[in-house]
Write a structure and sequence with these properties.
TIM Barrel, 44% helix, 9 strands, alpha/beta, 302 residues
């Protein structure tokens, strides 16, 4: 199982990161052996939040040959042409691969901010993802219900971005995306290892129904919040006072995450590996550089 990392875009108690902070974080992740550097996407959130695609572009030089990923970007909020242009630009500038993870998003605030009805998000997304996938390949887009006039982007990079979909594992989403996406981003805080495994088994069935080979369809488990600590009170503080309110989740629903002792975190990652996860994307809650080191120490013991 590969180990990637999220950029620390949100202020979860360490204050807002600077450009130098992000560059140092990306460089450290590269040197420690992380394989992917990912950025999530919100316009508005419960805590101060830097723009994901912009932040990802800012660390290209520090990331080296790491995979750069959006996990996930919001093509309905941003518009498919804008997202496709972002991804082709990243792929043109980056030394490593680019993965465009796409999703409809779960925040009505993002939709309200740009004047798009939140209840239309799924219908629009089902059209947006294949539109982005077409655009990043330099192909003309067809006329659709929501996205219209023919567009053809240039330049198109030599190494095309892969277009993945992000979902919490509902069968409807897995069915809809199996035929049109290049991979899947699952969500750690919304899926225990067992729930991830059950969703992956269902996805494999849908891939076979679409005449696609499951072994050739990658996945990664994003939003794997991380905090390795020998202090029980500190880990409880992270769950109860920081992460639970931030995610609007009962802390009891988050205990499967790698937050706690090194042994607990190792067992957590081992459980996802045993469930068949191809990659996990760790997201240090605080003290990012130190937690990147501790997270890789834990992962290296698997």
């Amino acid at each position: 199982m590969k180990i990637g990392a999220h950029l620390p875009l949100a202020d979860l108690g360490d204050s807002r990161p600077t450009g130098e902070d992000l560059h140092r974080y990306a460089s450290s992740a590269h040197d420690l052996g992380y394989t992917t550097l990912a950025a999530n996407d919100h316009l508005l959130w419960g805590r101060p939040w830097l723009d994901g695609p912009t932040s990802l572009a800012s660390v290209i030089s520090a990331a080296g040959d790491m995979t750069l990923a959006t996990s996930v970007a919001l093509p309905v909020v941003r518009h498919p042409v804008v997202v496709a242009k972002t991804l082709t630009t990243l792929a043109s500038l980056a030394a490593g691969p680019v993965v465009g993870g796409l999703g409809p998003g779960s925040s009505s605030a993002d939709y309200a901010a740009v004047g798009i009805p939140f209840e239309e998000r799924w219908a629009r997304f089902d059209e947006a993802l294949p539109t982005v996938r077409t655009l990043v390949r330099g192909e003309p887009t067809p006329q659709g219900t929501y996205y219209g006039a023919e567009s053809r982007l240039a330049p198109i990079p030599d190494r095309l971005p892969e277009i993945w979909f992000g979902s919490w594992g509902s069968d409807r989403r897995l069915t809809a995306m199996a035929a049109v996406a290049d991979g899947w981003f699952a969500s750690a805080y919304n899926a225990t290892p067992q729930q991830y495994h059950e969703a992956r088994v269902r996805l494999d069935g849908h891939l076979q129904s679409a005449d696609r080979e499951p072994d050739d369809f990658p996945d990664a488990i994003a939003t794997m919040w991380l905090f390795v600590t020998d202090s029980r009170s500190e880990s409880e503080h992270m769950l109860i006072d920081v992460l639970g309110p931030t995610l609007n989740r009962d802390p009891a629903q988050l205990v499967h995450l790698p937050i706690g002792s090194a042994q607990h975190c190792s067992e957590t990652l081992a459980a996802y590996a045993a469930a068949g996860a191809h990659e996990v994307l760790l997201w240090p809650i605080r003290d990012g550089l130190h937690q990147l080191e501790r997270g890789m120490d834990v992962a290296s013991s698997l």
